[in-house]
Write a structure and sequence with these properties.
The complex is a heterodimer of chains A (112) and B (119). Chain A is mainly beta and 112 residues long. Chain A is 0% helix and 57% strand. The chains are: A mainly beta (112), B mainly beta (119). Chain A binds chain B through residues 32, 34, 36, 41-44, 46, 49, 51, 89, 91, 93, 96-97, 99-105, and chain B through 6, 32, 34, 42-46, 49, 91, 93, 95, 97, 99, 105-113, 115.
Chain lengths: 112, 119
């Protein structure tokens, strides 16, 4: 059974810092991995999707990497801003049309 | 891009009543949709897989008679919480994926969620 772990559970940084969020999964035979952002009481916003054949994806200040063989992914946020404050969720899809398996998330606070 | 619309965004109901939540894929067809539940400061837990034209598949521990799922068309799935109780108060969220060949590789899109409070 696939399990997804995210470290740290919470993180507080001053504005402008670069930071890394970690995600690990137990079964490396994944179809893809997706990073989401969730604001309090809101739904999920997809940030980056990495296919199993890819090593990284970039969007603006965000960069996500995938090391499938070791079961790890990282989300790198450059020059953090207070507006980045949210919970970041990592989720994996095991095969083509299966549901996502989520980690518990990292709650990020960026202090102005 | 793929858009999933979920309604209502929040609902308060009395204990013992039923509540229906709708999930629509607006610009794509979804043969499969997923329903998740999220308790405060917890992650999303899969409740059931909704399949168009057939019965839903429920995760272990989820009562199918309490959480009725209907997926009558390729763009609409509904979740009905029957005889709701305060312990059913939670954040319910649906997701779907545009699996058409033209957009292979797209990830899942989520609705905006429904905050259910049972009093």
């Amino acid at each position: 059974k696939q399990e997804v772990t995210q470290i740290p559970a919470a993180l507080s940084v001053p504005e402008g810092e670069n930071l890394v969020l970690n995600c690990s999964f137990t079964d490396s035979a994944i179809y893809n991995l997706q990073w989401f952002r969730q604001d309090p009481g809101k739904g999920l916003t997809s940030l980056l999707l990495i296919q199993s054949s890819q090593r990284e994806q970039t969007s603006g200040r965000l960069n996500a990497s995938l090391d499938k063989s070791s079961g790890r992914s990282t989300l790198y946020i450059a020059a953090s801003q207070p507006g980045d404050s949210a919970t970041y969720l990592c989720a994996v899809m095991n095969s083509g049309n299966t549901p996502l398996v989520f980690g518990k998330g990292t709650r990020l606070s960026v202090i102005a | 891009g793929a858009v999933v619309s979920q309604h209502p965004s929040w609902v308060i109901c009395k204990s013992g009543t039923s509540v229906k939540i709708e999930c629509r894929s607006l610009d794509f067809q979804a043969t499969t949709m997923f329903w998740y539940r999220q308790f405060p400061k917890q992650s999303l837990m899969l409740m059931a897989t909704s399949n168009e034209g057939s019965k839903a598949t429920y995760e272990q521990g989820v009562e199918k008679d309490k959480f009725l799922i209907n997926h009558a068309s390729l763009t609409l799935s509904t979740l009905t919480v029957t005889s709701a109780h305060p312990e059913d108060s939670s954040f319910y969220i649906c997701s779907a994926r545009d699996g058409s060949p033209a957009v292979q590789g797209y990830g899942y899109t989520f609705g905006s969620g429904t905050r259910l409070t049972v009093v």
